């Protein structure tokens, strides 16, 4: 082999290793990706049954019901649509009606969202941009002074 051919072989081998490493990393991360959906997106059919995603909005007032064994039913709304949620486990201390919430889980065939994780927001600084944008569009956003826009 000439010098030029050796150089091309080394560059090709490095490129092949980088391509394989990138593919393995993307494959490993594909199970960890969770897209955000608002209740309006879910009702519109943008979330598939069985798909793992994040559902965010406000806990609808009057929707929280508790059962034995730490099972909690509640509804998440963005002002336009409502999605019913069931969660098994301990809820965050900041979880309450009218509070911003982001849940992670899957949608079943009946339209019930089974949450595996519930995150209650502390203040607007911790709310995902998608949730705050959806709330602003629906007119439910409160500024720092507590007044609506």
Structure report:
The protein contains three helices and seven strands. It has helices at 3-29, 39-43, 129-138; strands at residues 35-37, 52-59, 65-67, 71-77, 82-88, 100-107, 113-120. The protein has a five-stranded mixed barrel. Helix content is 28%, strand content 30%. β4 (71-77) and β5 form a beta hairpin. It has 149 residues and is α+β, with helices and mostly antiparallel strands. The N and C termini lie far apart (72 Å). The protein is elongated and about 80 Å long.
Helix-strand blueprint:
Elements: H1 3-29, E1 35-37, H2 39-43, E2 52-59, E3 65-67, E4 71-77, E5 82-88, E6 100-107, E7 113-120, H3 129-138
Parallel strand pairs: 1-2, 5-7
Antiparallel strand pairs: 2-4, 2-6, 3-4, 4-5, 6-7
User: What does the radius of gyration come to?
Assistant: 22 Å
Q: Tell me about the largest β-sheet.
A: 5 strands, mixed, barrel
Number of domains: 2
Q: Output the number of helix runs.
A: 3
In terms of DSSP E residues, the strand content is 25-35%
The strand count comes to 7
The named CATH superfamily of the largest domain: Nucleic acid-binding proteins
Distance between the termini: 72 Å
Helix content: 25-40%
Class by SSE composition: alpha+beta
The CATH topology assignment of the largest domain is OB fold (Dihydrolipoamide Acetyltransferase, E2P)
Strand order of the largest sheet: 2-4-5-7-6
Q: In CATH, what is the class of the largest domain?
A: Mainly Beta
The CATH architecture of the largest domain:
Beta Barrel
**Mean pLDDT over the full residue set:** 82
């Amino acid at each position: 082999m000439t010098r030029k051919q050796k150089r091309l072989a080394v560059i090709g081998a490095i490129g092949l290793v980088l391509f394989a490493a990138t593919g393995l990393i993307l494959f490993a991360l594909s199970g960890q990706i969770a897209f955000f959906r608002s209740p309006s997106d879910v009702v519109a059919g943008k979330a598939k049954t069985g798909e793992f995603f994040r559902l965010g909005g406000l806990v609808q007032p009057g929707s929280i019901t508790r059962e034995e064994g730490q099972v909690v039913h509640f509804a998440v709304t963005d002002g336009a649509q409502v999605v019913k949620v069931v969660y098994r486990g301990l809820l965050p201390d900041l979880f309450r009606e009218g509070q911003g919430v982001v849940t992670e889980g899957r949608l079943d065939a009946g339209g019930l969202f089974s949450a595996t994780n519930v995150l209650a927001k502390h203040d607007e600084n911790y709310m995902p941009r998608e949730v705050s944008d959806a709330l602003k569009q629906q007119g439910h956003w409160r500024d720092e002074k507590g007044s609506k826009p």
